[in-house]
Design brief:
Layout lengths: L6 E4 L1 H10 L7 E5 L5 E9 L2 E10 L8 E7 L5 H11 L4 E6 L10 H18 L6 E2 L3 E2 H5 L7 E5 L8 H9 L4 E6 L7 H9 L3 E3 L8 H14 L1
Parallel strand pairs: 5-6, 5-10, 6-7, 6-8, 9-10, 9-11
Antiparallel strand pairs: 1-4, 2-3, 3-4
Helix pairs in contact: 2-3, 2-7
Length: 230
């Protein structure tokens, strides 16, 4: 826990951004967040490439939300996961649980890719002003993901072959009293029948998102937006 009046060093990419991108100067005001989520107004000190700040007034951490939402996303090909992580960060998701399923195109995301996803999450948190960073886990197999369902009050499983009932009917009663929610989004080719059956057997609720089939990088944003509205 940091205290007002304390001087803290700023290094790495943050310092480079302050000096070379934002071109901030000695005495400029910045906001810093410590590991407890406390936000400090701070005065900047810049000496060449050395950057530090003196903490001034503080505001307490945001209240813990009554509802937390995690997203399990089948790893998509290319750079799509960067986009998903950025947008679900902006929409308030607590954690990202990547996984591989039967029809996944992308395979074996190595440490370098996971590190990049975490950098994207950090940058997204800074951009949107949230005081916590989306927690990005290493990818697991779909079967391993099923084993995590019991940790949630409700698991939402969008599937194009789910019963054609609108979200305004199906969703409110499912989440009304749920504290921990998991959204599970399939790969580009969708979930197989066997995977949907396995998810349903573990207590997941299969949801229909409408008559148009959404891209894998769109589905989580739709559900997060609807949940925010509710």
């Amino acid at each position: 826990m940091r205290n007002a009046g304390e001087r803290v060093a700023i290094g790495g990419a943050d310092a480079r951004k302050i000096v070379t991108v934002l071109r901030l100067r000695e005495g400029d005001a910045v906001e810093l967040i410590d590991s407890t989520g406390t936000l400090f107004e701070a005065g900047l000190h810049v000496d060449g490439n050395a950057v530090s700040a003196t903490l001034l007034s503080s505001r307490p951490a945001e209240a813990i939300a009554a509802r937390s939402i995690d997203v399990a996303q089948a790893v998509p090909k290319g750079q799509k996961m960067d986009f998903v992580i950025e947008k679900i960060s902006e929409l308030g998701a607590r954690a990202m649980l990547p996984f591989y399923s039967e029809r996944s195109v992308a395979r074996e995301a190595g440490p370098a890719k996971i590190d990049r996803w975490r950098r994207v999450a950090r940058a997204a948190a800074q951009q949107c002003g949230r005081n916590s960073i989306l927690d990005v886990s290493p990818p697991v197999a779909f079967e391993a993901l099923l084993g995590r369902f019991d940790a949630y009050d409700v698991v939402l499983f969008p599937w194009e072959l789910a019963p054609a009932e609108p979200l305004r009917v199906t969703l409110p009663p499912l989440v009304e009293s749920a504290g921990r929610i998991l959204i599970v989004v399939g790969p580009e080719g969708g979930f197989s029948h066997a995977e949907a059956d396995a998810a349903g057997a573990r207590g997941a609720h299969l949801l229909w998102l409408g008559s148009r089939i959404l891209r894998t990088e769109t589905a989580a944003m739709v559900l997060l937006s609807v949940l925010e509205y509710l």
